[in-house]
Amino acid sequence: MTIQTGKDIKEKVIIRDSDIRRLNFYEEYMRSNHSFFNLYRLANNCNAINESLVIVYPDLLERKAFVDKMRAACNKVILPKKEFNWIKINDRNCFWAWLMIRDIRNKDLPLYTNLFDSKTPPIYDQLPINKIPASTIERYNAIVEFFDILRTDVRMIRVYFYHLRIKLQKVYTFSTSFLWIKKENKKQCEWAWDYMKRSGVIIKNENILTPISKKEMYFTIIAAFDSWFALDSEKELFLIKMKKAWSQKKYRDEVSDQKLLNTYISQNAKDKLDKMTAISKRKINEMIELMIDNEYKKYQ
Predict the structure, then answer these.
(1) What share of the chain has pLDDT > 90, as a percent?
(2) Cα–Cα distance between 90 and 102 in angstroms, integer?
C-alpha cells in the first residue's frame, strides 16, 4: 500500500501548460477572481501559478474546483492554436484574413454589440493591437491576439472562420493571376503597386496597405486585389488590362534606346537576310546590327 504525503496530494491539482495564451488567461482569471493572487508574481509561469494556487487554496477540493472552473472558462474563449493553421499556412491566406478580420464590425460578432457601437471604427482599431504589421508572422500574431483580447466564445469564432474560409475559396478563383509578377523584381513590383493605386483598387484599404520591403510589396499587391470587392468579370478585365499595360511598358523600355529604320530592300536580299538569321538564330535587327558593325570596322 502506497502512502501519499501531504505534498503528493497538493501536487495533484496543478497547471501543466506551455501555451502562453492560456497562461495569460489563467493569470488574468486568478487575479480577477481572488484578490489574494495580486500578492504574487505569476508572470505567466506554471510554477508560480501552481505555488500561488496551493497558498490561496490549501484545501485540495477547493483548489480542484477552482482550477476546473478556470480551465473551463479558458476553453470557452481561447481557441486552440491549431484552429488558426489555415491562416498561417501561407502568406496569401494570412494577409487576406488579416484584412477581413481588421474590418470586423458588430454585425459579425453580435456578442459585443453593447461594447462597440456600429458607428465607431472597426473593433480591431479600438484594441491595443499592432495596427500595421510588417510581415506575415506579425499579421498572424495580430489575428490571434485580436480574438484572445475579445474573449469571444470559441463557438462563435468557429462559425466566423467557417464563413471566412468559404469566402477564401472564391479568392483562389484568381490563384494564378499574379504568377507573371516576380517578387524579387523590385521594379516590376513597384510598377504593379503604382498601377493598382492609380486604378482605385486599394481605395478602401489605402491607409493600412503600406509595403515596407520588396517582398512585402509583392504580397500587398495580391492582398489588395484579393480584398477588392468587385465582380469577377470586373476583376478579370482589370487583370487583362494590367498585364497588357506591363507588356507595353516592358516593350517601351526595351526599345527606348533603339531607332526605327524605315527602308526597302529587294526580295532577294530579304530572303538572304531571313536565311542568315535562321542559321545564326538571331533576330533581324540583331543580324543587321552585326553586319553594320563588321562593315564599319573596315573603315577604322
Answers:
(1) 48
(2) 18
